[in-house]
Model the fold of this input.
Amino acid sequence: MDLLVSTEWLAARLDADDLVILDATMHLPDDPRDARKEFAAGHIPGARFLDLASFIDAGSAVPKAIPTPEQFAERMGALGIAPGSRIVIYDDSDIRSAARAWFILTRYDEQKVAILDGGLGKWRIEGRRLSDRIVQHAPRHRADPQPHRTVRDKEEILANTDSRDWQVVDARDRARFIGKAGSGSEGHIPGARNLHYAKLIREDGTYASPEEIRAQFAEAGVDISKPVVTSCNSGMTATVLLFALALVGEHDAALYDGSWLEWGTDPETPKESGEAR
Done:
């Protein structure tokens, strides 16, 4: 299964026994929309609600941290998802939250995971069927998985400000990256480059072509053949960059999960403002 699947592809396979559809919609805290209520009102038939907002390690000092292996196994088991299932993730969110779910699932070695290109928005615009029926699935026992994809911590990023072993790429908008007055940000991690995640998404909500993705990273001053660590505000849109890198076959990339929520609030961490240097 490809990393991206089309609405046509999914519509033709809604009844496949080994296919799991996950709604990974999540909105920013200041957004009045309620992902769970929206799911109950209408979702792709057969979809299960991942509840991405709660799919975190609440016991971690890192804000909104990736769930632990135990928490991952518990959530997947509660949703009745068997290991080895084909999983298609979608969202209806401005922050493209399906990418965060993709990162979590592939971190814990789910190998047949795809994102629905264009998400629920494209599905709805095409007039495809929605359902308000919530299907219950029997819970399954899941063994705790071993982490696969890499997550970097604050200490590693701090050391990297001197070594520059990894290229840090910030997915936030330019105003926050440069620390513009009124943006609520002091700037960025020293040495970081800026590639706003929205530049990797077309107007219809689909991902840019491989050629366009490569061009955007190059324009941001990033050599994607070398190691990359992505960051954003909370570890959410940074995963859009990671997914885009995977689309072009570049996998030497990791997530700084704490991102600016952790870095920016620590008075001891260095900050830069202005354009990337």
User: Anything to note?
Assistant: The two ends are 40 Å apart (CA to CA).
